[in-house]
From TrEMBL:
Coiled coil: none annotated. Residues 201-371 form the Glycosyl transferase family domain. InterPro entries: Glyco_trans_1, Glyco_trans_4-like_N. Residues 13-169 form the Glycosyltransferase subfamily 4-like N-terminal domain. This is Glycosyl transferase protein. It holds the Pfam family Glyco_trans_4_4. It comes from the Bacteria. GO terms for molecular function: glycosyltransferase activity. Keywords: Transferase.
Length: 400
């Protein structure tokens, strides 16, 4: 079965990693994958995973996510999407002679382009929803997106119940968790911390403001001033490193920041050189988890991300910014600590509590591992997705 994947981001992150791990197991069921994606580290990772990669400068998106939805000056971002549209359409049109069985859109922001791809290839479409959507049901953009899903999507697959709750109530949804494949050996919590003399907190993810990385640095400043024995390692690729006039204009409008440079400046200004380490892009973060004691996910997305579940497999509890966590996001006081928003003081308080309570940290870590094994089996996720593909192909063949 040939599947065409549309993936929006060039930088390697949680969405690309989740798709790669899913595909690595699905290919055992004779799934052949071609991915249309911007060039970058994600494209290289897709190729290494055995997928055929069709690079493009950018894929045109429509953002109605809770964090990134268009408002005020953010409407200007649509100009970028319009600039990407001709190249996106031309690439799809050049591929029109290829035969695919299913189109898999790897994020709902690509829904409009996915609809066009569906019309070009005349094949059923799966929409993978990885981000929380703009909540107000009366919002015209939300009504538009839900209407597109109802009319054009043959399967809508949110990654968890938190995401599902932000979609239209009349939609038929099939939740497929971000399944994980990890080689989680014995966690080194006690021995590793004893050798370092400090507790180590980790941040994993692309360096963008919505991930709460600035707030985490502020929290580390607070913890330093409190005298807490804690250090932080940050593993992630700089999403944007723009130069010239374009960079100046985007920064003035607040749409682009060189996050890596900002963090380096903050570390210098706050005197955190001995407390915070920027690792840059790490291809295999599995080598880092056994060295961590706490995982911090202080995102503005009000949801738990892939690193939270990965860390859980290594018996590592998390501090997660999520206001009303559902059971498949984080269990407050059981698998980690949930804070209502990514405010530096709240992050610092939660990290300090785990850093100074070794028994609590280990207890939450053990419970997190049991929870992860029960909820995020890669085998189960892959089996469910293959079943969706086969059902859609069978239905499509009956129509022909």
């Amino acid at each position: 079965m040939r599947v065409l994947y549309l993936h929006p981001a060039g930088a390697y992150g949680g969405a690309s990693k989740s798709l790669i791990e899913l595909f690595s197991l699905m290919r055992q069921s004779a799934i052949d994958g071609t991915v249309l994606t911007p060039g970058g580290s994600a494209a290289s990772a897709f190729a290494d995973a055995g997928m055929s990669v069709v690079p493009v400068r950018g894929l045109s998106q429509f953002d109605n996510t809770r964090y990134g939805h268009y408002r005020r000056l953010r409407w200007i971002i649509l100009l970028r999407e319009l600039l990407f549209l001709p190249g996106s359409l031309w690439t799809l049109w050049r591929m029109r002679g290829e035969q695919f069985d299913v189109i898999h859109v790897n994020e709902i922001t690509l829904l409009p382009l996915g609809i066009i791809a569906k019309k070009i290839f005349r094949r059923p479409m799966v929409i993978h929803v990885r981000s929380l959507q703009c909540a107000p049901p009366g919002n015209w953009r939300t009504r538009l997106v839900n209407g597109w899903l109802a009319r054009h999507a043959d399967a809508v697959v949110p990654i968890d119940h938190t995401v599902a709750a932000t979609l239209g109530r009349d939609l038929s949804l099939e939740i497929v968790h971000n399944g994980l494949r990890v080689d989680a050996g014995k966690h080194l919590d006690g021995a590793a911390q004893g050798a370092r003399g400090t507790v180590r907190v980790g941040f994993m993810g692309v360096l963008i403001a919505l991930k709460g990385i600035y707030e985490l640095l502020e929290a580390m400043r607070i913890l330093k001033n409190r005298g807490v024995a804690i250090e932080c390692v940050i593993a992630g690729e700089n999403a944007r490193n723009l130069k010239g006039l374009r960079a100046w204009v985007l920064r003035k409008l607040g749409f682009a920041r060189n996050v890596r440079a900002d963090l380096e400046q903050m570390i210098h200004d706050y005197g955190l050189e001995k407390h915070v380490q920027l690792l840059g892009f790490v291809k295999d973060v599995r080598s880092l988890y056994p060295t961590l004691d706490i995982l911090c996910f202080p995102s503005h997305l009000d949801a738990a991300g892939r690193p939270v579940f990965e860390a859980a497999f290594y018996s590592i509890p998390s501090v997660v910014a999520v206001k009303d966590p559902l059971p498949d996001a984080v269990l407050h006081e059981h698998t980690g600590l949930a804070i209502p928003s990514p405010e530096p003081e709240l992050i610092a308080d939660a990290l300090q509590r785990l850093a100074e309570d070794h028994v609590l940290r280990q207890t939450l870590g053990r419970q997190a591992r049991d929870w992860a094994i029960s909820n995020f089996s890669i085998e189960s996720s892959a089996s469910t997705m293959v079943a969706i593909y086969r059902r859609l192909r069978s239905k499509d063949e009956r129509k022909q």
